[in-house]
Write a structure and sequence with these properties.
CATH topology of the largest domain: Rossmann fold
Strand order of the largest sheet: 3-2-1-4-5-6-7
Strand content: 5-15%
Number of domains: 2
Number of strands: 14
Number of helices: 21
Helix content: 40-55%
Largest sheet: 7 strands, parallel
Shape: globular
Radius of gyration: 23 Å
Length: 452
């Protein structure tokens, strides 16, 4: 362990001790913070996970791949990979967030799903000994120095980064700790980056040029196969009918709902059949959204409270407070407005509406999806506005000019088709990497009984 990593661990330990009282208070008051906390420290593993681990083929019988996706967006992006790989390899899926964890468990109940460990060396050793992967695959750019060092140097396991991206903001942040980034990135087996800009930034931070490839963005390969029965069920629950026009506010953040709801109110004067679905990025923010709607005296209902026996009857507004139903909702929508783009968050994935053949509108702050945004605008497949009020005129044009609406949708399909193929390139890269990794003696360590 070199000097940069030693300094990193000293600083981490010091910061943890210094802020321990704050951490304890945070854990006490926040259910979100407590979710997966002990598992991230490798102190506790749920019974269901331990049972799945116990029944897996032995490491020398079937190659093991650990796929990590931070949250919902990254998990949805790698679903095509999971579907292709799970038939041939033993897969482990990890996430960082609670929403990502819930969606992964719901989507793949047969696979072992775990939380990604905190970057503490004992925790990482424990999880690696439990999983014993032949290959670790990190989605986008999760750079954890201890995890990368222990995985590649001590456990001799190749680690690759797929769909890698480095926004200008994160690049500047990493540059400030260049002394740590350079030796860390040299330990990564290979970087498969989204764009040439992302590849250049990785090299500038210290990634060896020969280990960096630009392969495109797997999010263009998103083509969810939505079952008609699920679409019809949701349509009945929401009480949508053919004459309705549906506007979906997708993955919104605090500070965005109020002005966008006002846009909906204005549009509804000319489109009385207009319905609104609000899908917050974080479901725990639902009380905040309810308060906004109550203040405006707007009737609404929660998706979680709808059922076949209690469908929506009269409410023009639905709050999507469930996980994993956004794409299905977009398939029932006429127009989508992407959240995270009207505040300085950096936007959310604007390709999801395009995959469901509807136009997408987003605000000025899309720096997390810079390359995708540029391509969408160049292909006239979506629209960027400076402020929420600008949506009113634009949406009115789209909803009253069928030919223009259809052309935008067609442009979106051309854009997706033009950029597809990254999925196959990444599957081949993963298969090639795992073939070259021949582990020697293998010792498997299953987790012990949960710590009470």
């Amino acid at each position: 362990m070199g000097l940069p990593l030693t300094l990193y661990n000293l600083l981490m330990t010091g910061a943890t001790l210094l802020f321990l009282p704050v951490i304890l208070v945070w854990l006490t008051v926040s259910k979100k913070a407590r979710s997966g906390f002990r598992q991230k420290l490798a102190l506790y593993f749920p019974k269901q996970l331990r049972e799945k681990l116990a029944h897996l083929p032995a490491p020398n019988e079937k190659k093991r791949i650990w796929l990590h996706a931070v949250s919902v967006g990254e998990f949805n992006a790698i679903r095509p990979l999971i579907n292709q790989l799970k038939e041939h390899y033993t897969l482990f899926i990890s996430t960082t967030t609670r929403t990502g964890q819930h969606l992964a468990r719901k989507t793949y109940p047969e696979l072992p799903i775990l939380y990604f460990p905190y970057d503490f060396r004992p925790s990482i050793h424990q999880v690696l000994n439990m999983v014993h992967p032949d290959l670790v695959v990190i989605t986008e750019t999760e750079i954890w120095p201890n995890f990368i060092d222990i995985t590649t140097r001590l456990h001799q396991t190749p680690l690759i980064i797929i769909n890698g991206r480095l926004s200008p903001g994160s690049f500047k942040g990493y540059q400030r700790i260049h002394f740590l980034m350079k030796p860390t990135l040299k330990q990564v087996t290979h970087f498969y980056m989204q764009s040439s800009d992302d590849a250049k930034r990785a090299i500038q931070l210290g990634a060896p040029k020969e280990r960096v490839s630009q392969v495109g963005n797997i999010k263009f390969d998103m083509n969810p196969e939505l079952e008609l029965i699920h679409q019809n069920t949701l349509k009945r629950l929401f009480n949508f009918n053919p004459k309705d026009t549906v506007l979906t506010l997708a993955s919104t953040h605090s500070g965005e709902e109020q002005p966008l709801i006002e846009v909906f109110q204005t549009l509804r004067k000319d489109f009385p059949e207009l319905k609104l679905v609000i899908a917050p990025r974080h479901p725990e923010r639902v009380p905040e959204i309810k308060n906004i709607l109550n203040t405006k005296a707007l009737p609404f209902c929660l998706r979680s409270q709808l059922s076949e026996t209690h469908p929506n009857k009269t409410s023009p507004i639905i709050i999507l407070d469930t996980i994993g139903e956004l794409v299905l909702t977009l398939s029932l929508s006429s127009l989508a407005i992407m959240g995270g783009s009207f505040i300085e968050h950096g936007g959310q994935n604007p390709l999801e509406p395009l995959s469901q053949k509807i136009p997408v509108i987003f605000g000025p702050h899309m720096f997390n999806f810079g390359d995708i945004t540029r391509q969408i605008l160049e292909h006239s497949a979506g629209f960027q506005v400076k402020q929420p009020e600008d949506i009113i005129h634009l949406a009115t044009e789209l909803l009253t000019q069928p030919e223009r609406y259809d052309q935008v949708v067609e442009n979106g399909q051309h854009l997706l088709e033009k950029n597809r193929g990254t999925q196959h390139a990444l599957v081949k890269a993963i298969q090639d990497r795992i073939k070259t990794n021949t582990p020697s003696s293998i010792t498997l360590s299953l987790p012990e009984q949960p710590v009470s």
